Prior knowledge:
The protein has helices at residues 13-22, 40-44, 61-74, 127-136, 153-159, 179-187; strands at residues 2-9, 29-35, 50-59, 83-89, 92-93, 102-103, 115-123, 143-148, 166-175, 198-205, 208-211.
Amino acid sequence: xxxxxxxxxxxxxxxxxxxxxxxxxxxxxxxxxxxxxxxxxxxxxxxxxxxxxxxxxxxxxxxxxxxxxxxxxxxxxxxxxxxxxxxxxxxxxxxxxxxxxxxxxxxxxxxxxxxxxxxxxxxxxxxxxxxxxxxxxxxxxxxxxxxxxxxxxxxxxxxxxxxxxxxxxxxxxxxxxxxxxxxxxxxxxxxxxxxxxxxxxxxxxxxxxxxxxx
Length: 214
């Protein structure tokens, strides 16, 4: 199983999902996100920010290539840089009402990928600071999705830290050789030095492509 993530302008996600379903995808989930500027200058000027649809689809390997190419064709007449699409691994999967869990039983082969997805989940209001730090280390733009933490009020009392339930999830695609520098730049942010402020992780991206005219 693979997770295919597509990021396109707001209100275009439904059409993209429909095209994918016509080529073998069983469905997807559309989240509302916020695109961030690709440079510090554009961010300072208030440019480069827009509302995005983030489409998540879990596909079997047998239909992955067909659906991937269908999405590219469905957006081929859009403007250049219309959106992006990338693929990451899924180790286990089940569908409600099914009898069991599908698992990848074969040992993972180490694949040298050209890109990595860095995901930072931080308290609401700090995603822009994380993006600014990532840019300094060579990252381009990113996409923010509003989220909610699951910590309980008793956890705050037990750990002695302030827990903020409102979160922002920032997704950034970077070249593999820049991953460590970007992660280190994010880790060194003053706002992330306190416990409970956020986490960040990375995962290899197998296929990364731009949507729209080439």
